[in-house]
Design goal:
Layout lengths: L2 E3 L2 E3 L1 E5 L3 H13 L3 E4 L7 H11 L2 E5 L12 H10 L4 E4 L5 H4 L11 E2 L6 H15 L10 E11 L4 E6 L3 E9 L5 H4 L7 E6 L11 E6 L1
Parallel strand pairs: 3-4, 3-5, 5-6, 6-7
Antiparallel strand pairs: 1-2, 8-9, 8-11, 9-10, 11-12
Length: 220
């Protein structure tokens, strides 16, 4: 069983989820694609060590966002998928959480080509997501994903929840976008206040606010 995408053969997909029933559900979907699922049943070791082992287990990764319950992992799925991507391993993030666009680290979205907002994706969705990821790893970014230097204005802070809201004039002058404190460098976090302006690398071609990433922050 295998799937050929842009000259790359995908024979096994590593399924990562803290819940056994969810791993089984993902596995059935992977099998429907004609690919062998490999379930990560044991707790994950530290992130950097785990990604080194991924290539020995599979050709790609399918991960849920929430991995920390029950000490299954010490990190969430966005960190796993982004790290795999940077290591050249195709990886897809899935989640049906209603607030997933608030939870995902917007700096890491730069390295997450496909976020499927469902816990039960169709095989065709997974195949398309893999194609998108492999294409980016090969250096071909779509207009929706290309970074551009953009102006950002802070409009509100919620320190208790560890989030703040920004407006991105080059994308939408009215839409407030939620960003977590962990998505910005510590030196930038200390400068955050309503009305403060920054620049960052942003994919201004994004069609949905949940696709926006913010990286390489600079104070104005």
């Amino acid at each position: 069983m295998s799937l050929a995408i842009h000259g790359q053969k995908i024979e096994r997909i590593l399924v990562v989820d803290d819940e056994p029933a969810a791993r089984d559900s993902f596995s059935y979907i992977v099998e429907d694609m004609g690919i062998e699922p490999v379930c990560q049943n044991e707790p994950l070791i530290d992130l950097s060590s785990f990604v080194v082992l991924v290539r020995k287990k599979a050709d790609a990764v399918l991960s849920d966002y929430r991995l920390t319950p029950g000490n299954y992992a010490g990190f969430q799925g966005d960190a796993l998928v982004a790290t795999c991507y940077k290591d050249g391993v195709p990886a897809i993030l899935c989640s049906s959480l209603s607030d997933i666009d608030t939870l995902v680290n917007r700096r890491l979205i730069r390295y997450i080509p496909a976020l499927l907002r469902t816990s039960n994706p169709e095989p065709e969705q997974l195949a398309k997501a893999l194609e998108c990821c492999i294409s980016e790893i090969d250096g071909h970014l779509s207009a929706r994903r290309k970074p551009r230097r953009a102006l950002i204005r802070v409009v509100d802070l919620d320190k208790e929840r560890g989030i703040f809201y920004v407006v991105l004039p080059g994308w939408n002058t009215r839409k407030k976008i939620c960003v977590t404190f962990e998505a910005v460098p510590s030196e930038i976090e200390g400068l955050l206040e309503p009305g403060r302006r920054f620049h960052a690398q942003v994919n201004l071609g994004a069609e949905h606010y949940g696709e926006l990433y913010f990286d390489e922050w600079e104070p104005e």
